[in-house]
Design a protein that fits this description.
heterodimer; A: about 600 residues; alpha+beta; 4-stranded antiparallel sheet; B: Rossmann fold; 5-stranded mixed sheet; 7 helices; globular
């Protein structure tokens, strides 16, 4: 049967059905089903979150000042971003103004997380969709050295001996039979296009990135007191500054600031000399594989982040862009207001929840999370062992958020398209430069590779922003301001009986919002709409498909039983279902099961 | 010469018995005193963020709720090469593939602790969001700690009675007593997340 969606896709579920469950190398549990035609091209796509996490239930009745600590536990990767979003929501509800230093420090922590996540995502979660580490064993170290000096001449680690050592280490690891990280790969699939030398270079950088990521998170340890799980504070940041005297245990002093500064420099060298050149070099071998654009050319959303001044979230004051693009009209970037009940709404017609009546959308302040688990009439299997979903009915634990009724893509690519459309100078320079260097037209950005490239560019841009806020913090301290928190409204007796607020951030994987209602000093309702809820959204009542689903459409697969292409595109979103989905399949095979029906 | 050791609790405190590992390290730090060569850490569900902690030590104890398919509340201890295999035996929780990967990555980097012991407990309940440990799981904490203490002692790390001071545990609002007691008063728990900022009164 062929079904045309309002957002421009033709869905045909008559071909073979392929089920990938779970999708690996992501946070959380996710399942994907596609139909392929006789040529192996994807003609229908269904993405589903297979867990429910119940965060809304957990937070009800808790102290709003503790919400950050709870939300920090939602997820294993974007901990700090949830904490920041949470404190912003509470501050918004209670009208708390944070000090300038707190804004600079929070921005640096958020940017560190952004950069850390982007680098870890590219090298440790996504690279294996493009790079074949087993093939790297066949590389000539001398030729690899020449390749390195061509693509990244400023990177000092480039000698033939260096690459030979890495190759030997890799060989030992693979020969020990531990394959570990590299298991579950489809290493002889023709979808892998790199020559062995590029595979060795990229695998080597995989190892270098592992060392670097340990440095980046020290910024969280310094400003957040510890890592993992850094500390946050409603009203500011929980780290006192003391650069003049000695004796204040744990306070931020010049020595710690100097360490932060050196980490910023080191990270930026990696972004410029390794990460971006790798994306260009690897992308060059896949320049004809421009699938996966999905909704990106049609509908993008960003809340924006990194405010220049505390508490000022007006779009022109944000370093990461805010706005919405719909109907593919890049000439007009629309205003986004997360308070407007008509803008952000969540629908559950195809999700395992109920609002009591069909077709209803709820703004998060009025959000309801009531589970209703039922399979459609055409589903195959049982309630506990689904063989095939019925996407015409309820089929996911992810709700379907919509912006003015539109399914939207969020994330680095959405931010970069919005920034580009707004004429954001830094972003425009980066994008134009990359396309020029790779000799690609603008439209190439609407692709899986575009998503991956936008993340690399953003990592570098975030590095520059880190430097900016570091300098700003140091200058402010020199001017005599050491304030890091505003505790005027710390005591709940100063709060109104009822209040509501919203906190927004740009998490590494996209727009993140927390909506809170406070009553008599306690949390009455708390709703998180996370980036993967947007991207992993199921269909809505009008039949619009979500961003993951859209991105898989019309992609040819080399071998349908080996879902390299599906993983490649889904990974390009950096999915994090730990927080977006909310019963889990208690048991399951460790290996991804791919079923072809 | 005795090297360094890491005592790591992993899991998610928000999902009832999933929090077993984290509660073990909390209780261990409260009842045993170790010197600076032994680090006690609440690892939560973190993945690669934990790597730096692994590479600094020669021996590592991991507490976790693990689905062995045994009777609820049953303890199981595995060592060495069996650890990653056991953690991946069943896909019970979110974090387990993650921590397997951390071990595999540490091996690839050549910085995996030489000796690892996994002290696991078969959970009773996982699907109680915001819930605490079930009695049958909570009762195992002292046994789990005793196993860890003896295992470390056999490797030259001796504990004395008392406490180990560390900043590497969960925020006060998430510690078991507060978390399970639901509504802590301010005097019980510093809600700032950092005692350095709001010094204790009087």
């Amino acid at each position: 049967m062929v079904l045309d969606t309002p957002n421009g896709f033709s869905l045909d579920n008559s071909g073979r059905r392929i089920v990938v469950d779970p999708v690996t190398r992501i946070e959380g549990h996710m399942r994907c089903e596609v139909n392929v035609d006789d040529e192996g091209v994807i003609r229908n796509a269904v993405s589903t979150g297979t867990m429910w996490r119940g965060l809304e239930v957990i937070l009800k009745g808790r102290d709003p000042r503790d919400a950050w600590a709870f939300t920090e536990r939602i997820c294993g990767v974007c901990t700090g971003t949830h904490a920041l979003t949470s404190v912003r929501a509470v501050e918004d509800a209670l009208g708390i103004q944070i000090p300038d230093n707190a804004n600079s420090i929070r921005n640096m922590m958020q940017l560190a997380l952004e950069i850390h996540d982007h680098i870890v995502h590219f090298y440790h979660l996504h690279a294996l969709d493009w790079v074949n580490p087993i093939n790297a064993l066949r590389a000539d170290p001398r030729a690899t050295s020449e390749l390195q000096q061509t693509v990244g001449p400023n990177h000092p680690l480039s000698s033939p001996g260096y690459f030979r050592d890495v190759q030997n280490r890799l060989k030992k690891f693979v020969e020990s039979g531990q394959l570990g990280l590299f298991k579950n790969g489809y290493w002889d699939n023709p979808a892998y296009k790199l020559p062995p030398e590029a595979d060795l270079m990229a695998t080597t950088h995989y190892l270098e990135a592992l060392d670097l990521q340990k440095e980046i998170v020290k910024i969280h340890t310094i400003f957040g007191g510890k890592n993992p799980h850094p500390n946050w504070l409603v009203g500011g940041v929980p780290c006192p500054i003391n650069v003049h005297s000695t004796g204040a245990v744990g306070a931020i002093n010049m020595e710690r600031l100097n360490l932060v500064s050196s980490i910023i420099d080191k990270t930026q060298e990696f972004n410029r000399n390794v990460y971006i050149p790798d994306v260009k070099a690897i992308g060059g071998f896949y320049r004809n594989w421009l699938y996966g654009g999905g909704l990106s050319s049609q509908a993008c959303l960003a809340y924006g982040d990194i405010p220049e001044n505390p508490n000022d979230f007006s779009p022109e004051q944000l370093h990461l862009p805010r706005g919405a693009i719909i109907n593919g009209n890049l000439n007009e970037v629309l205003d986004v207001d997360p308070r407007d009940p008509e803008q952000v709404q969540e629908f559950v017609d195809h999700s395992w929840y109920t609002y009591g009546e069909p077709g209803r959308g709820l703004h998060p302040w009025d959000g309801v999370t009531e589970a209703q688990y039922e399979l459609g009439p055409n589903a195959k299997g049982t309630r506990t062992n689904i063989e095939e979903l019925d996407e015409a009915a309820k089929y996911s634990w992810i709700k379907a958020p919509r912006w003015r009724g539109h399914a939207m893509e969020v994330g680095p690519l959405a931010r970069y398209i919005i920034g580009y459309a707004q004429g954001h100078e830094d972003i425009k320079d980066q994008v134009d430069g990359l396309l020029r260097d790779m000799d690609l037209p603008f439209d190439a950005i609407f692709s899986t590779l575009g998503r991956t490239a936008a993340r690399a560019l953003e990592s570098e841009y975030c590095g520059r922003l880190q430097r900016h806020f570091f300098d700003k913090l140091v200058q402010n301290i020199k001017n005599g301001d050491e304030t890091t928190a505003n505790i005027e409204k710390w005591d709940p007796s100063t709060w109104p009986a009822e209040a509501k607020g919203v906190g927004m951030t740009e998490a590494p994987r996209g727009a993140l919002g927390h909506w809170i209602r406070i009553k008599d000093g306690r949390i009455e309702n708390y709703q998180c709409v996370v980036p993967t809820t947007w991207n992993g959204s199921p269909r809505d009542v009008q039949g619009n498909i979500g961003a993951f689903e859209a991105s898989l459409m019309n992609t040819p697969m080399e071998r349908p039983e080996e879902p390299v292409e599906i993983l490649r595109t889904l990974h390009s979103f950096d999915p994090c279902l730990a927080c977006s989905t909310h019963v889990m399949s208690p048991d399951g095979d460790e290996l991804t099961e791919v079923k072809v029906r | 010469m005795t090297g360094k050791a890491l005592i790591l609790g992993i899991g998610n405190v928000l999902w009832a018995d999933e929090g077993f590992g984290v509660r073990c390290v909390e209780e261990l730090a409260r009842t045993l005193s170790y010197g600076p060569e032994v680090q006690i850490l609440d690892g939560g569900t973190q993945g690669l963020y934990l790597l730096p902690f692994l590479e600094e030590v020669d021996a590592m104890v991991v507490f976790d709720a693990v689905d062995y398919g045994l009777a609820p509340g049953t303890m199981k201890v595995v060592e060495g090469d069996e650890v990653p295999a056991f953690m991946g035996a069943k896909k019970m929780s979110l974090h387990q593939t993650g921590f397997q990967d951390v071990i595999a990555t540490a091996q690839l980097m050549g910085c995996c602790p030489a000796e690892i012991v996994l002290i696991g407990c078969q959970p009773v309940e996982l699907e109680d969001y915001g819930g605490g440990l079930r009695p049958a799981t909570a009762e195992r904490i002292p046994d789990a700690i005793a196993i860890a203490r003896d295992w470390l002692a056999a490797r030259g790390h001796h504990a004395s009675a008392g406490q180990t001071r560390t900043d590497d545990l969960a925020d006060a609002s998430l510690r078991r007593e507060n978390y399970e007691g639901n509504r802590p008063s301010e005097t019980e728990a510093c809600r700032t997340g950092d005692a350095r900022f709001f010094p204790a009164e009087g």
